[in-house]
Amino acid sequence: METKDPMFELLSSLEQIVLTRDVMQAGAMTESEVAMPEPKRIREISGMQIDEFALAMGVSVSSVKSWEAQRTKPSGSAQKLMQLIHSNPYLGRQLLER
């Protein structure tokens, strides 16, 4: 099995985010058209349990539960990290290995 370089994967994911932002700024798409999936969906796609997802995100389990119940909204940096995990579901697991 081929192992991908985590730094390459991270940079690729960041590039996708920047391209999406540039398209939105050009007026081609609105923010709602490129809305990030819900935290629970991102967690499920990445195959992580709540405690693993919380550890990868650097937050408490209660924060993740609150996001998933839509009681609170993730911070900007948490949203960006979720975008990265969404574009590369293996990134969450790689973050747990560190």
Automatic annotation (TrEMBL):
Pfam name, any one: HTH_3
Keyword NAD among record annotations: no
GO molecular function annotations of the record: DNA binding
UniProt xrefs under SUPFAM superfamilies: lambda repressor-like DNA-binding domains
Lineage, top ranks: Bacteria, Pseudomonadati, Pseudomonadota, Gammaproteobacteria, Enterobacterales
Protein name: Transcriptional regulator
Domain annotation HTH cro/C1-type: ranges: 40-76
UniProt keyword list: DNA-binding, Transcription, Transcription regulation
InterPro entries per UniProt: Cro/C1-type_HTH, HTH-type_reg/antitoxin, Lambda_DNA-bd_dom_sf
